[in-house]
Amino acid sequence: DPALIFDLGGKFDKSFNESAYNGAQRWADETGGKYLEIELQSEAQREQALRRFAEAGANPVITTGFAMSDPIAQVAPDYPDTIFVTIDGWVPDQENVLTIGFAEHEGSYLVGMMAAMASKSGTVGFIGGMDVPLIRKFACGYAQGVKAVNPDATVISNMTGTTPAAWNDPVKGSELTKAQISQGADVVFAAAGGTGVGVLQTAADEGILSVGVDSNQNPLHPGKVLTSMLKRVDVAVYDIMKAGDDVKPGFRAMSLADEGVDYALDENNAALVSDDMKAKVDAAKASIVDGSTAVHDYTSDDSCPALSF
Amino acid sequence: MTADDTSGRQETAAPAIELKGISKAFGPVQANKDISIRVMPGTIHGIIGENGAGKSTLMSILYGFYKADKGEIFISGQKTEIPDSQAAIAAGIGMVFQHFKLVENFTVLENIILGAEDGGLLKPSLSKARKTLLELEHEYGLNVDPDAVIEDLGVGMQQRVEILKALYRQADILILDEPTGVLTPAEADQLFRILDRLRAEGKTIILITHKLREIMEATDTVSVMRRGEMTATVKTADTSPAELAELMVGRKVLLRVDKTPATPGDVILDIKGLRVVDDAGVERVKGIDLQVRAGEIVGIAGVAGNGQSELLEVLGGYADGTGEIRVSGQPLDLAGKRADGRSRRARGIAHVPEDRQREGLIMDFSAWENTAFGYHRDPSYQSGVLLNNAAIRSDTEAKMQRFDVRPPNPALAAKNFSGGNQQKIVLAREIERNPDLLLIGQPTRGVDIGAIEFIHQQIVALRDKGKAILLVSVELEEILALADRVAVMFDGHIMGERQSAETDEKELGLLMAGVGS
Amino acid sequence: MDFLTLIQLLDSTVRLATPLLLACLAGLFSERAGIFDIGLEGKMLAAAFFSAAIAALTGSVWLGLLAGIAASMGFSLLHGLASITFRGNQLISGVAINFLAAGLTVLIAQDWFSQGGRTPSLMGGARFEPITLPFAENLGTVPFLGPIYAELISGHSILVYIAFLTVPLTWWILFRTRFGLRLRAVGENPAAVDTAGVSVVGLRYAAVMICGMLCGIAGAYLSTALQAGFVKDMSAGRGFIALAALIFAKWRPWHALYATLLFGLFGALETRPDVIQAIFGIKVQGALLGALPYVMTVIILAGFVGKAVPPRAGGEPYVKER
Amino acid sequence: MEVMPKWAEVILVPLISLLLAAILSALVIMAIGEDPIAAVQLMVTGALGSTYGWGYTLYYATNFLFTGLAVSVAFHAGLFNIGGEGQAMLGGLGVALMCLLIPWPHWTLALIGASAGAALFGAAWAAIPAYLQAKRGSHIVITTIMFNFIAAALLNYLLVNVMRPQGSMDPASARFPEAVHLPTLHDLLAPIGISFSKAAPANVTFLIAVLACVLVWFLLWRTWLGYEIRSYGKSEPAAKYAGISPTAITMIAMLISGGLAGMMAINNVMGEAERLVLNAVEGAGFIGIAVALMGRSHPFGVFLAAVLFGFLYQGGAELALWTNIPRELIVVIQALVILFTGALDNMVRMPLERLFLMTRRGSG
Ligand SMILES: Nc1ncnc2c1ncn2[C@@H]1O[C@H](COP(=O)(O)OP(=O)(O)OP(=O)(O)O)[C@@H](O)[C@H]1O
Ligand SMILES: Nc1ncnc2c1ncn2[C@@H]1O[C@H](COP(=O)(O)OP(=O)(O)OP(=O)(O)O)[C@@H](O)[C@H]1O
Ligand SMILES: [Mg+2]
Ligand SMILES: [Mg+2]
């Protein structure tokens, strides 16, 4: 059986853990299969869970979150017959590891473009959870997209906090949104887990547009969420579970080209996205896919051309 | 309330209070054993007994503070259940506890109405109480500023508040638990005048005290308690102090300090121009000069709060002062790093503090830990970097033996000893150090007469070894009996010095009031 | 910094201060009666959940509020049982309540709604909407005072006004009523209250229950007024900050208002790095910006606030017979 | 003078309390549709049934031992140190700097160096609140809460912007060099012929924690410094009378407390993660409060309480691994244990006392 290890945020983080859970659940529902799972509670459990699942014969062992890279690098050599999958992590030179890398910056770029096009004030906002490189990657891609549409646009970026509470503080998310509104922002993009709930809510209440993240959050406030930056962790998990023992180690990119990231368009935001917007974004998407537009990845060199942290 | 309606009640034959077969245990401790007592209306009934005899417990039961395990209570012949203080108050009982039950940061008025308010809002209650208070003050001469905050008041005043509290609740029966333990003679006299007045009005008063003189002077009947039992009840007129003392301790007690005239030697303590300013910025000691010689006891008399405590604190090293103090000729630091208790002890100064429970002892520590208190860095208590607990324990055992501390169990926590025995632990610790100078504050406060006798003997014995002793006490009687020379403090000044053989309470009393030379 | 920015900052201050204020006053009642309460956080969290859950189920935010208050008071009862009836350690009880609330809210939420420990989003009557005070729209154009009235004073949820009114009410109860006198007395010297014929246990339970009620409102404010639903751990340490504010305020109601407004202001400033940059002239790095409120608090405490003396009988169970 | 024999107080009361907590937990488990007996079995075998389980139980216990001792020492001085969390974070920073900046030849030397670094940084983080308490009267409860937040912000800044290896996604320091890896219990016990799970993270730090327990006990009850700390904690006026400096004791007790909290980092940062991660302390500072309170601030009590919490953590992990019991349930179980053993213990003690008094009266 496959096993799935959720990162500290827990499987219901309204973010990528939850997305992974949904993928696994879809696989279980469709195939009637069973999988092992654990929601980590502490750092020490990372290695523990990997080893226990590997010893119990689970294969593949799927993990979410960049923080699993290091433990996998430690554990994987001890269980050469098990395939370890890291989503968001980076474990080079390890034969039995499948690394799945999402190009969040590309997806963020697209929603950044849409935000800039939807903005009337020329000011858009970004609200992150904790200030970690992954979140900066989102912010940086987003800012590039904004500037691509409107080089004079202002991008206001805030992080919620410095403790894990930053992922579950919708109240703070609301206040940050209001603060950004008072600075003129009329579209905000939240990449902040549970905090984002507050961002989207406040944006809807205050009559500005918001951008959801990870899963399609458009239905949360129909007609008020401009779009969502999709990160198809569910697809990745579903595919891996479906492949089961046949899953191949190595690297699997989940970029725009692979439909690993995308922007969401459905009946909830159809009225918000004009044909012109859609055309421009799709054009940009095509050009990113064919390589003619390069979106800078913050984590590649810890710098961002469009935003300073 | 007028004299008319009380006089009628005086004629009823039923006792104001009758307790039958009261027993009370605190865990394994049997504090009261099958106690019965009758108190007639319009009388003052004294209760005496050693520390821990169960006096306070019995009265607390009557007041509904504790619940008796067994026994019945009759008020004016009527069987009455007193499950809580509310019921006691309703039955007309008021009590002034040994440790006052006042809210320190409330005003007098607030304390008085607490629990006896009229209606939900404070304003009407306060103004009504203010009026009633004025009447009561007028009637009994109990003057207190209704707006003063309790913690700013002296103990004498606080006690008045307690009495007023009881009177405000229209108590007919007033229990006073060791009311004079903390009072000056003048204050005590005033208290007894008030009690007389109350008795004349037909109120019934129960008075717990360790002072036989007070029993003899104030009470109509007296009961003696020993180890939880009521051993005797007699008419005061039919007994004598010596008999009472024997009844209570179970042996003959010397009621007078037995000492030879002093033979003073060199000056040990020499104070010149000492001034002390307290934390609140008030100058409490305003430039005093004083000498204590080897082989003499100098007593500092004075109403509490006239700078005696601050004097002791500076000498003991835990308050800062200015001026000059020499001990055995060497100057003493009055501020800074070397002005602390440890340095003082190193200089041969021992100190029995005024408040043993607050300063002298750590109540949760065992007796042996308390024996090391202040001397815990003494080389004889160390072995290497560690404390030599065995040495401290055996030292404690020896000291407990010599000072007759009961029970002689070094492992018992200080809080489990009675007040008198707590005081003996402190004394043993300080006196046995054989200091050059002993500072001693209120040596016998709240201590029973058996223990007083012993404590006085120890102090005199130390003097006879040629040591200098500075004694601070609010008990004039004690000062006169113990000290060779008396200095009286008033408002931070020394009002005068007298040889104790050549003065009397009256003269000292005047000095204490700030009148005189 | 222009005037409108200031108004926005203060507006945000008010919103952020409100839950702190309610929790702080809650703690004030409890601690003034001599019962320490580090379980404010847990009670707030429980109330946040139950008010949102019941509001979601019934569609009525008022029923939600009642449920939140009831839940919080339930935890208060537990705290009372441990620290008053059974004379247990008040700090431990508080710690346990915080854990219990953190676990139970998510467990129950998952059981009821299967939305990953969240409640559904509240809509319409299931939420406290901002109230527009009379004439706010017309007066908004009056210079200076107009925006203050229209933007800052008007436009908050009813719970904000309740919270602010609770300050004078608390002051009045504590210092002007019989109940307040007894409550303060029982926190200073329970023996005095006992010998005055008043039940110590009764008073302390009353105080603890009031504490529960106010924490309940604080929690409900988080999930049904500021937010439209419950998210796990959404109290996010506010109970502890309220506790700090309580000590800061030296257990006094008006000071509690000032202290929580100060914390609210710090929180609001944190959302506006641009304003801080304008004031101090330097760009503060994001993470360090987050530390600013706490650093400021320490500086103010060390520099301006003297020693805080808690109610004298605080934290100790009332034991007559050892 | 005591009502109950000592064994009843020390063993019976906690045991019955624990039982009550267990019964209530079982009810909660049943309420969410799981089998409580199976759950308990899983927890016990998972946490205590193998050297592997013990290895994790003791690993967690080590963390709680340090933070529990830290809170206890401060408690004895009458100070409520809520800042264990921040002090342990800073301790981690000390360990990381020591391990990364100095090329240690052998783990023993590294351990000494890292312990010193951890204690120093932890103590330094406690020093400021202590100084403000002693000199300015700023309430230590507020300042230590504030310092927890400040520590989190500081660490976040350092790990994201300064200490993170270039290009790494993880806000964590670089891995420590091989030379500073601490031996696990497996490594320590293998030479003497005892086989211990290789996988478990319990390491030599556990022994240091036990040693710390003993030392703290010696400090508090066998040295004059401990005597002064306890005296000051019981009564400030009495301490002054005895010549004990309130300022000095406040500072010293908090420095020791902070140092102990900081020392936790040699277990989790140096022993387990072998690098400094953002959320390394994960609430152990707060668990330390519960551990100290439940252990009645006595090192031996702290030891037992720490092991109990280690058991709950590891048992909880096993539950999470093999069942669908959500992790919040484990939090609830912990809460119930804290509640019953720590706060509602008199609920058990009172009737027991009455029982013992009755039997005593009956026989005497
Ligand atoms: N609240 C209590 N809990 C447990 N034991 C108590 C309590 N109060 C008193 N005792 C014990 O009961 C006994 C009687 O104490 P009580 O206070 O009645 O003595 P007392 O005669 O008033 O003594 P003193 O003259 O010192 O005031 C003592 O052994 C005392 O230690
Ligand atoms: N209605 C009010 N409006 C504004 N400020 C007030 C009001 N009432 C009191 N204050 C101020 O608030 C501060 C605190 O008042 P509060 O009643 O909380 O405590 P207090 O009465 O001073 O303290 P305590 O009764 O504990 O000694 C005081 O400085 C007081 O002047
Ligand atoms: Mg007594
Ligand atoms: Mg006032």
UniProtKB/TrEMBL annotation, chain B:
It is found in: Cell membrane. GO terms for molecular function: ATP binding; ATP hydrolysis activity. Residues 17-252, 269-516 form the ABC transporter domain. It holds the Pfam family ABC_tran. GO terms for cellular component: plasma membrane. Keywords: ATP-binding, Cell membrane, Membrane, Nucleotide-binding, Repeat, Sugar transport, Translocase, Transport. SMART domains: AAA (SM00382). Belongs to the ABC transporter superfamily. This is ABC transporter ATP-binding protein.
UniProtKB/TrEMBL annotation, chain C:
One of its GO terms (cellular component) is plasma membrane. One of its GO terms (molecular function) is transmembrane transporter activity. It is a multi-pass membrane protein. The chain crosses the membrane at residues 20-40, 47-71, 91-113, 158-175, 205-228, 240-266, 286-305. The keyword Membrane applies. Keywords: Cell membrane, Membrane, Transmembrane, Transmembrane helix. The keyword RNA-binding does not apply. Its main location: membrane. It is found in: Cell membrane. This is ABC transporter permease. It comes from Roseobacter insulae.
UniProtKB/TrEMBL annotation, chain D:
GO terms for cellular component: plasma membrane. It is found in: Cell membrane. Keywords: Cell membrane, Membrane, Transmembrane, Transmembrane helix. GO terms for molecular function: transmembrane transporter activity. The keyword Zinc does not apply. Its main location: membrane. The chain crosses the membrane at residues 57-80, 87-104, 110-128, 140-160, 199-220, 241-264, 276-295, 302-323, 329-348. InterPro entries: ABC_transp_permease. The keyword Transport does not apply. This is ABC transporter permease. It comes from Roseobacter insulae. The lineage of its organism: Bacteria, Pseudomonadati, Pseudomonadota, Alphaproteobacteria, Rhodobacterales.
